[in-house]
Amino acid sequence: HESPSRDDETFCRTIREALKRGGNVYIPSFAVERTQQILYLLNRAYKEGRLPNYQVYVDSPMAVSATEIFRIHPECFNKEVYDFLFAERDPFQFEQLHMVRSISESQRLNNLRENAIIISASGMCEAGRIRHHLKHNLWRKDSTVLFVGYQSQGTVGRKLIDGAASVKLFGETIAVHARIANLAGI
């Protein structure tokens, strides 16, 4: 695995550029730790005015539950997050954030055409709700898929990072016209 990056500005710049395209930003993410790390970065960026006020959706029941567990165990945080917790009360909650558990709410996100950031499991695009979001949005030129974690050889995520012109999802070949960005290890 690549070593973690602390370059928050690259993350923010990538999000800003993606949202300027007019579509949504899809972040395939692992439900435990990576999603909470992304929420923490987004929360801080919003509070510091480094990102415009776009809606953020966590579309993964497991990631929602894991985030709730993280909230009730601040003793497990590193010093930076712990200090932020006591300054802000909750490093994983901010006004723009929506936690999605139900299938119907998740399906509604596939029709969302306004700028939004959608964080969904699984991180390598091999399972989970992210596959539905990719099926409905990879062909859109205004969409961006932002990878923030390691992608193993042979996974859909790796194929996208490697520049595949199309991928198979649910037995269908989906053309890739979305912008693919890779900040693995953020």
SS strand fraction: 15-25%
Order of helices and strands: HEHEHHEHEHEHEEE
The radius of gyration over CA amounts to: 16 Å
Distance between the termini: 12 Å
Kindly describe this structure:
The N terminus is likely disordered. The protein has 186 residues and is α/β, with parallel strands linked by helices. It contains 7 helices and 8 strands. The protein has a 6-stranded parallel sheet with strand order 3-2-4-1-5-8. Strands 6-7 form a two-stranded antiparallel ribbon. The longest helix has 14 residues.
Key features of this structure:
single chain, alpha/beta, six-stranded parallel sheet, 186 residues
Characterize this entry briefly:
This protein has 186 residues and is an alpha/beta fold. The chain contains seven helices and eight strands.
Q: Which SSEs are present, and which pair or pack?
A:
Layout: H1 8-20, E1 25-28, H2 34-47, E2 55-59, H3 61-71, H4 79-88, E3 97-100, H5 103-109, E4 116-120, H6 130-137, E5 144-147, H7 156-161, E6 166-169, E7 172-175, E8 179-182
